[in-house]
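User: structure tokens for A/G-specific adenine glycosylase, please.
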Amino acid sequence: MTFSKKLINWYSVNKRDLPWRETKNPYHIWLSEIILQQTQVNQGLPFYDAFITNFPSVFDLAAAEESEVLKLWQGLGYYSRARNLHASAKYVVNELDGVFPNTYKDLLKLKGVGDYTASAIASFCFNEVAPVVDGNVYRVLSRYYGIDTPINSSKGAKEFKALAQELIDVKNPSDYNQAIMEFGAIQCKPKSPECVVCPFQESCVAFNTNRIGELPVKIKSAKAKKKYFNFLVFIDDNGNTLLEKREGKGIWQNLYQFPLVESKSNLDADAFETELQAHDLVKGQAYKWSQYNKEPIVHKLSHQHLYTTFWVVNIKALKTEVIPVGRIRDYAVPILIGNFIESFNF
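Assistant: Done. Predicted tokens:
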């Protein structure tokens, strides 16, 4: 039996029951794939359900305010996915009359859709012979064939894509693609794979050469930079607080945060007092402050680690546009800020 047939047979018995597998609707498939780009299934499922409930069609998503989309996305991270999702929905509605592209080539024109996502949608919805290559596929193929070319190199990307093209079942590309991803997710897992009951055990190079833990090979990325964030949680005598919208192309674009003071290291009480005294919002006013978390909260992003301290500042009146504390949960914020809001219990 060929590799592809054996894989599809395994899938028919072991596949998980997931809502996006019960439809060929490209809007639903596209939505699920964008959510799952950097998110595991169990975490992404409630977000998928929420998006389908709030935006049943691409027209509904396109008509939404970006702030609504970001708020619903809150907790998933990698917020550029949400912004691209919204932009692509507008493109489909305004430029394509609400009709999704139905080929791999045209799907690539959607913002936030790359090779993997275009292949997935094209094969799942339109049965195009377009092989998917994601982290699960890299792992399965590198182990089964004993390939040690780094998966995050240009050579590796070409090599694995070519191999995937050779292996795909041209008569059933949809099930094949879903099968190999599912196999990597629940059978050939990154750690503790189920080798004892694996249908490919006899012919798997990694298993038979004791290299399961070595494959796939990945070039180590640069060491994450450390940044020190100090958030000023103002609360005035009228029960108001302050959030600011992040502009520009950095992290958390268009999300809201408390006023931020960046420092070169963690601030002690004296250093914070010096920073606070220089802040425009407290000049000429009496205030009291307290340090909410005694040890910095380390929030790890892909290329930087944020050492974060929240400083609660009680003040008579905020001389700027304010937010009643009762409305603070209406704003789309990064998960780091959201977790603080819930723990502080405004």
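User: Anything notable?

Assistant: The CA atoms of residues 12 and 197 lie 16 Å apart.
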